[in-house]
Amino acid sequence: MSYTRHEEALNFAAHPLLWALARMARHRRPCWRVPGLGVVVSDARMAREILSRDTEFTKNGPGSFASVISEGLGDMALGNMDGAKHRELRYALAEVLAPERAESIIRERRTDLYTMCDSLRRGSIVDIARFTRGWAGRIAFDVIGARPPAGEEDAASQELVRRSAGLSSILGFRKPSAGAMRKAAVDRDALAEFFRDAYRQPAPPRSLIAVLHDLQLDFESALGLLLIYAIGGTLTLSAALPRILALLIDSGSYRELVRNPALTSQVVDEGLRFTTPLPGTVRIVRKPVVVDGIALAASTRLIILTCNMARDPEYFENANRFEISRVYNSRAGRLWYGAGVHRCAGFSLAQRELKEALSVFAARVPSLRITDRRVTFGALLPAYRELLIDSSGAMHEWR
Ligand code: HEM
Question: Would you say residue 245 lies in a domain?
Fold first, then answer.
């Protein structure tokens, strides 16, 4: 199967209807009115304008993701906030994932990558999807400033990601059923238990908990933020890294990266462009407005398809091809992280995580092969449930 088909299978397994809609919308740029759903935006320029004009296009309103985030995570979770309160909070939280802190967190977790690559070199088969979930979970604990129980670090990190995925399953275009909300509440309570004790103690400087202490938030008020950082920090990386690695192997580009490690940054950009881990987001029109000559009525729901923006032919030649030699188009911006005031708060960390992991792979394991894979069905972010890899005869190539 080609790399494109594997990627399609992942997207289809996660969101069969949305993926079919996204495919159709690619031919209906800049946007497409879909009765009962809203206006689907695929054009990168139009989408960026909407995301940047946050006073006219808000996160909240009927049919928004934000309203479901509020039900599941509480009112204060960044991704469901608008206006001055959101800006002030983003400003206060900036130090949690500032570049130097992201760098030092990754430095601490580098040995996990070495151990995993050593095990590949010894001939083991590694489930890179599982490894990434554990790695992302450990990093999320560090970002937040909590510790997994001693001796159970991997199990707790896996559990953190599993519960984050469970809680995120309520996010979608439809209001979740009462049963789904009850299940999500069980996951939310389990996640809260990971952080409750840590919240009572002094936390490591610049960690999320330390900043929330400075803001004098009690645990219940802070919980939404702890949860959104756990979800945002773990599910994105768990989706992105295995998919990018699979793309490299399936397309035959992994060897090129091994030969030329200077390509790592380009691989991260191209890998995120091609996979767009967060396939879409939603904004609501606050009052009647015209964008790109298109009139939008108040309360219209805008479904902004990041996955289509990243394939906009105006910005990306041969957009449906995964080409690691593609030079990053600064005119387009890294749209897969969003734009405007809600642009991803974890940008610096995510970039470093991916660069670090891919450069350790390329430096230590000259050849990789996928021995088996399974996709996740119904996940918020299309992801591999299992991606088994080995070093396929790499022994012969070591010096
Ligand atoms: C490859 C990895 C990632 C991708 C592609 C990604 C993508 C995005 C996108 C597109 C948004 C904006 C959504 C919108 O406008 O509605 C966003 C927001 C956010 N991301 Fe990420 N993200 C990634 C990694 C991370 C990490 C590692 C963290 C935290 C440790 C994180 C935390 C957040 C938070 C808290 C928000 C909400 C920001 C706000 O609303 O002000 N993300 N992300």
Answer: yes
